[in-house]
Structure formats: structure tokens, C-alpha cells
């Protein structure tokens, strides 16, 4: 069983964090577009960023900051303009954002990290940003997580938020997170962003290692359409305000904390996959029997990223042939004779050969999973439009409870892994074809 | 300029080949489903096959044959059942097919190569196949290429065929080809198949090397949905019946022959991409300035395989941001500052930054390309249903003449490459979601 419980509060659930989200006038829509997370004290900071050759200014900025200094106090995020492919002017804009916020918060700009999301090729609208910084800082609150979560989204249908609590040495320790993203998706509204806060005290190198592993098991294991953005960023702060003993090396306590960090990242990643454009359900692919975790993950990602598998799930078609074909082309060697495929409780292939199964019942399983997902998503969207300040983490968790499960075994190895994605519907094409930049 | 001309006749255009296609009763639809290509004499044989871990019996069969013997006289292809994931029974069925045909043609079964396409997990319907073999051999004809091309297709909207002629030492040499495939696509109607005939005399190792390189520059450079099938096969015969001097090493004549072989493969590959399920146009991505050809191909394939780029083209949206993002995530290092992007004649990005361009005119370019493609495809489909025995190579070539061109430069390197694909439309989702196995 898991060694933690879900709590409310998002990124402000851990001690010593405040957050805010306001409308500064960056988005043409007039929706909230500027978010801030601040730690009361300098926090250990780690980051994982896009590996694309085409990167936004904020990604270059954070990479440079974190190379020279493994701590930070604030994360500023604007939505509306990605500030990617904007050259030297975009770089200077990023520096100015950090400088302005540092002045307003009375801290060195070196303590500030940046993230942007929005249209590629557009610089941040600096005039409204300059005017908005004071209002943003004034709005900081210990219950500001949902406001921040609402100000970082672009094409997302719902906000993504989670907070978990465990104990270390009999004292509570919390990790919270917010995220945005729904595939690479809309126009150029690229980008997956996630911000994680923690009140444990962790050594910088260890915190970065934990975050990198957690990212591999969460954000790097989801795919909506295979596209990776110019701005993808995962930033995690650990400020020690739980007053628990510092964790400096791997061991029971570090493992406990890393497991909870991974759970936070997995929740946010699944919420992003579930919110994929036009998606009607979340798909979880579980691969076992591979030679190692990396091989298993590779097979899982190939299956969940297959347009044919995704279309079949949308059509509620228990099409094991497409799953087998996707597993086979993942680039990981295995013996065809060892291939086993299950969809939910339905065994469809064993020893590399098809097994008779109840097609109608298997199709009904897919229909039911989509119906459950649709109901939960509607509740979230309604709740979101009714009450942007309320806490919706419970409903959120429910909507991710019943994914379509595809379980594949490829042999007798000890490597296992999971990947998450969504189905491919008419609406995906519609959203992505009919938007004109 | 190209050193060859287009001729009629498909795989029976080269000297010393006959072909046939009949309805044996393998497909539930009652359409032609059994094809045969025979060389008058033993021909040098080369092959390129799926790299999937899940392979059909025919793929294992051909690989084994070509390992021990670099020649063949006949290619038998059935459509309707893929004979993949069918275990030892499927393997025995394949052996029986070769044995039966060998008896009928009065040649050793070692001279027979096999291909299958159709539903994964289904064995070949052996009863109608056994009854059909005699009829198939009786139908062999020096003008039988189109009948064969029509009997290997499954979900294809049009047949794919080409023949080119050049001269070697003042004597004519011909290469013909037929293919099937429209993405991995329909149900489990996987598979891309291509059969190439040549009447030059070429040394076996050289012929295999030429074919492998041609495959990389054609069939391995197309993508419809990124899915690779269990049955993908490219088989090429060279029977020497042109009576030209044997080509035994690389040199001017070998280069000339390889260029024509590559052109045949590229034509067939583009025809497959154009026939992608639900596609409204062919997209050609040209990448230059990379460090080598492989790097350029990798970037080109990533761009043409991006669901976001494909959706944008379907929406006639000149969305350079998605092209830049896809180039950036291809896994090939380049300096963002060197990125240049053109769509048709429209320069959209230079030195890594967006350039103002006429959006309406660029969108009109995309609309026009799709309108041209649609007109040509309609002509082909009409022609195909009116006259299954006629030669349609001229119309086919026209329909591939005006692809949407995306030209990307990533630096000053000498590596360049091309990839082909199609747009992503509502119909892709419809075809793949609504079919129930």
C-alpha cells in the first residue's frame, strides 16, 4: 500500500509556500495568464527541461541558473506567449522578467526561475507584464495554488493539481504540484509545465536525481501525439520547512520521499494525458517481462503512442492485432512466442497467438471506461467554471481512477514499466486542423 | 535530368517476366486476392523485410530462403490473411504454398518467395488457395502486371505501379514495380508490400546493397501513422534477360541502375503515402544542411510524421511553429539560429526566427495542392474501377507530381534527405475507429 495520503492545497500544501495567479492581459482571451510560486526561504531547486533543439528563452535561462546555483525562491510563469524562437530580444525579455520580480519580492533575481507557455515565435507582452508584477506579488497567498494552476493553462480543459502527505521521523512532510498541458496540441500552444513544491530538506544532488527518475516514470512516459514542445519544464523546490532531518543520501527515508514525489508526478502526468485534445479516456499500458525498466517503458510508450491503437480504443474495438504490432516495432528484441496481451480482464493473446475472448464484453469494457472518464471530466469542468478558487483534487483523482488498462508481457525478464496516453478522436483532428494561426 | 523514361507494363515491362492476379476466394469481399510474378529464368533476388519482433510466416520464410540462396524465379502473394501470429501451423501453411506452386510451375520450391497481407492472426485459407494455384499459373501473362497489382491490395484506394527504362551499353534495361499499402491502417490489414523486377544482370551482393539503399531512400522514408507491420516486404528480382553485360561492382553503370531502382521505389513509396487512409494530399519534406544523409532523413521523417504538422496541412494552416518544433525534437543536434523553413515558395523562418509572409497566399498554396491531388486521385480511382486491366501509370505519376513541399535547412552541412507522408484527416480516425475486427 502507499505510504501517504492525499491532502488539499496543491503547491501551497507544503509549509512555507505561497502562490498567486492573476489576469495581467497577456492572453487575448482575458483569462488568467500570470502565475507565481514563492518559498518563504531559499529552497533546493531541481529541474528537467525539454530536449528539443528549438528551445524557449525561459528554458535556457533556468538551465543556466540551475547550473550555477542549486536553489531558488520563486517560479514565475506567463501564459499566452511561449517566447520561443524569439532570438536575443526574447532572451533580454526573460532577464527583465526575473529582474522586475526580484525587485518586487526584494530578493536577488538569481533566486527566480521562469517558465512560459503560449504561441511559439511570440515575445512576452512586456507592457502588461510590467504592470502586472506588483498585482501578482500582492495576490500571493497560502491558499493561492488553485489560482496559480488556473493561470498557467492554455488549451487545457481542466486544471491539474495534487498534494500528498507522508511522515518522516514522525513529522509530516508534504509534496504538492500543479501542471498544464493537454498534448503538444493546439495551434502552437505547445508545452507541458509542472511545478512541484516540497517541505522536506534534501541535498541538492539527491533532489535532482529523484526528480529525474520521477520524470522518467511520469512525464516522460506519457504521450498524446508524440510531439515535444519548445518549453517543456518540470521544476521542483524543497525548502526544508517541515523541520524534518535533512535527507542527504539514498535510504529508507529518501525512498519514501522519492516514491511520493513519483506519485505526485504520475498524477499530474496522467491528468495531462487524460486532458489530451479530443480524448475520451485515459489509457494505461503496463509492460512486464522485459529485460529492464527502460525496455519495458519503450514498449509501453510505443503502444500507447500508436495512432492505430488509439483509434481502436476510440472506436471501442478490442483490437489485439494493433497492440501486438506496436509492441513488435518498439525496437526492443523479444521472442514473439512469449507475447501475452490483456485488455482489462480479457486475455487476448498468449504464447504469441490469439486466444478466443468475448468481443462484445471487451468492447463493453472500453465503452464503460470512456463513460466513467467522461462523467468525471464533466464534473471537473463544471466545478472549474463554477468555482475557480475551490479545491478539486478529489474529483481530479477520481477521473484518473479507471483508465483503460492494456497489459503486455514479453518474456520472463524482471523489467516492467508503464506509460499513459489517450485515445484518438475526431475532435483531435478538428482542434488541430481548424485552428488557424 | 533523369537518365530514364517512364514506360508501360509494370513488373512485366522488363524482359522475361510474366504475372497474374486472380480471385481465389481468400478475401470475404470476393475481390482479386492471389498474385504471382514469374521470371522465365532464375533471377538474382534481394529483399528487405519488416524489423518488427512480431513477424509473419512469409517473412521468416523469405529471410531463410535468401540467406541460403540469392536467387529465385517466382513471388506468390496472397491477400486477405496476413498469416502472422499463427505459430507453427502458419509456418507449415507457408511451406505448403511454396511446395504447391513449385509443383505447378515445375520448379523447386526453393525458387519461390512468399508474401501475405491481410488480417493478423488469421491463417491463409488453404482450401481456396490449393484450388486456385492452377488457375493462377494458367493466367500468367506478359501483360499481367496490373492484374497482379490489383490482387495484392487490401484497403488501398488505388493500385500502385511503375516501370522505367534506361540504357546500359546502348541496350535497353528496364525496372518495373508494383506495391500495396496505405499506411499500416485498416483493421489489422497491415502491411506494405512491393515487388520489383529488373532485366539487368547484377551480382547478388551488389543487387542487395542497391536495394537496401533504395529502400532507405523510399519505403523507409514514408510514414502514414508511424506504425510498422508484421508483413512488410520488398522483394526485387534481376534476371539478366536484357542481355546487357553483368554489373558486378559499383561504377557508372551500377550508379545508373541504382538511381533508376531508387526512382522506382520512390514512386511506389510516394503512391503508398498518398494513399494513406483519409489522406487528401501528399507531403514531401526536404531537409538540407545536416551533417549527413541519415541525420537529414531523421529530421524529415519526424516532421512528416508529426500529427500536429499533418493536422495543420489538412486544415490548410501554414503553421511553421509546428514544423520547427518537430525538427527540434528529431534527436539530431543543430543550432536553433540556423533553422530555415519554407512551405512551397513561402519563406516562413530564417536564422531561427519567424519571417513575415502572406498567410492567405500560403494557405491557398495548401488548398491548391490538395485540390490537384484530389482530382488526380479521383481519376485514378475511376479508371481503376472502369478498367482493371488497363495501364494507369501515367495518371498515377501525375497524382504524385504536386505534393505539398516543406523545405527545412538546419545548417551548413552537406547532408540532405527527403521523406514523404500525408495529412491527417477526420477520415483517418473514422476508418480506424469504426472498423470492428
From TrEMBL, chains A, B:
<dbReference type="InterPro" id="IPR042195">
    <property type="entry name" value="ArgJ_beta_C"/>
</dbReference>
<comment type="similarity">
    <text>Belongs to the ArgJ family.</text>
</comment>
<keyword id="KW-0055">Arginine biosynthesis</keyword>
<protein>
    <recommendedName>
        <fullName>Arginine biosynthesis bifunctional protein ArgJ</fullName>
        <ecNumber>2.3.1.35</ecNumber>
        <ecNumber>2.3.1.1</ecNumber>
    </recommendedName>
</protein>
<feature type="binding site">
    <location>
        <position position="180"/>
    </location>
    <ligand>
        <name>substrate</name>
    </ligand>
</feature>
<feature type="binding site">
    <location>
        <position position="154"/>
    </location>
    <ligand>
        <name>substrate</name>
    </ligand>
</feature>
<feature type="site" description="Involved in the stabilization of negative charge on the oxyanion by the formation of the oxyanion hole">
    <location>
        <position position="117"/>
    </location>
</feature>
<dbReference type="InterPro" id="IPR002813">
    <property type="entry name" value="Arg_biosynth_ArgJ"/>
</dbReference>
<feature type="active site" description="Nucleophile">
    <location>
        <position position="191"/>
    </location>
</feature>
<dbReference type="InterPro" id="IPR016117">
    <property type="entry name" value="ArgJ-like_dom_sf"/>
</dbReference>
<feature type="binding site">
    <location>
        <position position="437"/>
    </location>
    <ligand>
        <name>substrate</name>
    </ligand>
</feature>
<keyword id="KW-0963">Cytoplasm</keyword>
<feature type="site" description="Involved in the stabilization of negative charge on the oxyanion by the formation of the oxyanion hole">
    <location>
        <position position="118"/>
    </location>
</feature>
<keyword id="KW-0028">Amino-acid biosynthesis</keyword>
<dbReference type="Pfam" id="PF01960">
    <property type="entry name" value="ArgJ"/>
</dbReference>
<keyword id="KW-0808">Transferase</keyword>
<keyword id="KW-0511">Multifunctional enzyme</keyword>
<comment type="subunit">
    <text>Heterotetramer of two alpha and two beta chains.</text>
</comment>
<feature type="binding site">
    <location>
        <position position="277"/>
    </location>
    <ligand>
        <name>substrate</name>
    </ligand>
</feature>
<keyword id="KW-0012">Acyltransferase</keyword>
<comment type="pathway">
    <text>Amino-acid biosynthesis; L-arginine biosynthesis; L-ornithine and N-acetyl-L-glutamate from L-glutamate and N(2)-acetyl-L-ornithine (cyclic): step 1/1.</text>
</comment>
<comment type="function">
    <text>Catalyzes two activities which are involved in the cyclic version of arginine biosynthesis: the synthesis of N-acetylglutamate from glutamate and acetyl-CoA as the acetyl donor, and of ornithine by transacetylation between N(2)-acetylornithine and glutamate.</text>
</comment>
<feature type="binding site">
    <location>
        <position position="432"/>
    </location>
    <ligand>
        <name>substrate</name>
    </ligand>
</feature>
<feature type="binding site">
    <location>
        <position position="191"/>
    </location>
    <ligand>
        <name>substrate</name>
    </ligand>
</feature>
<comment type="pathway">
    <text>Amino-acid biosynthesis; L-arginine biosynthesis; N(2)-acetyl-L-ornithine from L-glutamate: step 1/4.</text>
</comment>
<keyword id="KW-0068">Autocatalytic cleavage</keyword>
<dbReference type="GO" id="GO:0004358">
    <property type="term" value="F:L-glutamate N-acetyltransferase activity, acting on acetyl-L-ornithine as donor"/>
</dbReference>
<feature type="site" description="Cleavage; by autolysis">
    <location>
        <begin position="190"/>
        <end position="191"/>
    </location>
</feature>
